[in-house]
Amino acid sequence: MESILTSIKKLLGIAEEYKHFDADLIIDINTAFSVLTQLGVGPSDGFSIKDDSAVWSDFISGNSRIEMVKSYIHLKVKLLFDPPLNSAVIESINRMISELEWRINVAVDPGEDQS
User: How far is CA 27 from CA 38, 70, 73, 111, in A?
Assistant: First the structure.
C-alpha cells in the first residue's frame, strides 16, 4: 500500500525522509480532496489525511475507474505548493486538471441508464 503523502512527495521530487514540508503538503493535499468531495468523489462526508499513514486505497477503495485522482491531486498540489514560473506551463497544468476533473466526474456519475 502506498502512502498518499509519500507518493505526492515523490512526484514533486521531495525525498520521503525529508519532513520539513509535510505540514504544507498535507494542507494542499486535503484541499484537493475537498474539491474531489465537491465533485462527488470519495466518501460523502469527505476525506483528509493527517500524516503519511493514509494510503490511496483508503480513498479509492478498489475503484480502478478513479485511479486518475492520483494524477489530479499531484497536479493540484504542484500548483499550490510549487507553481511553475512559466505561464504556458501553468496553463498546460490547468488544462490537464480541467480534463481530469471532467473525466473523474464522468467516472463517478452513474448516468441516466443506471439506477
Answer: 17, 16, 12, 33
The DSSP bridge partners found for residue 3 are 55
In a domain? residue 61:
yes
| CA gap 69, 100 in Å, rounded | 8
| Predicted structure pTM score | 0.90
Structural domains of the chain, count = 1
**pLDDT tens track for 30-55:** 999 999 999 889 888 999 999 999 99
Residue 115 in domain = no
Q: Would you say residue 8 lies in a domain?
A: yes
In this structure, the number of other CB atoms found within 10 A of the CB of residue 31 comes to: 15
DSSP 49: -
